[in-house]
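Suppose you are handed a protein chain with no further information: no name, no annotation, nothing but its sequence. What can you learn? This example shows the usual starting point.
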Amino acid sequence: MFGATAACKKKHHHTDPVINDSAYQITKTIIGDSLSVEVVIDKPKGTSFDVLMVFHGTVSYDSLILDAAYNTLDGFKLILDRKDMMIVSVAYPEENLLFGDNVKHAEAALLWVKNKAAAELGIQIKKVFLAGHSQGGYVVTRLNTMHETNGVIANAPGPLNLVFRCQLEEEGKIAAGAVCNLLKTKYGTTTVNPAAYQARSLLKFTTGFKSDILFVQGLDDTPIQMTSWPLFKQKVTECTDCKQVKVHEVAGFGHQSLFENAGAKAEFNKFIAER
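A reasonable first move is to predict its three-dimensional structure. Written in structure tokens, the prediction is:
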């Protein structure tokens, strides 16, 4: 839905908005500490907003991430039952980065929204929510261990267990991919150095959530996801130093369950409305 095959046909605007109450959609480059990241800003009419920051799934090549950000914005906008929220979709990079290193780009975008966006856009920002799909769900879960927001939603977050996933590639059971190849080049195989793979797996980020979080998981997702899902679910629901953790499982639906299942969409909107 939000990957390379879903080509975005929108024109990418790189102009600064006129500071008024008009609606617009633009891209903007955020400068952080020694890095930059592009965001797509979808602003409704008005000057005071709650903000939903959204994060795309894996697309492998950075030439595709801006289109992925637009597609992800559209996907979340379709299921959001509010028309008065500003949506900021983050085109975080992936290519030639060790898995998880792009969290710092996502963090730069979040800190911009929290600390600078209001002044730069000439608006008032009230609440800030995070939502992510697949690798985007991984990103927002990790951000929730770092910074407080008003709430976080993660759909099918992963990879949950990079040892399991990359071992399948090493054994030739699934096709090799860039994520595991880069980790292998840096750390060696999962047998030689499993701790390095575990340190970047989402199973290692199941405590210390600073904000309420909703996990949505389709139970017909891929075996790579579902093999580790029961353990991940157990760990996050047993967390003793987390804010509220909610888990919504969707029988009969797969990786895109949040965007395809009416019950999951309702849980998403209820979660935001209650905060």
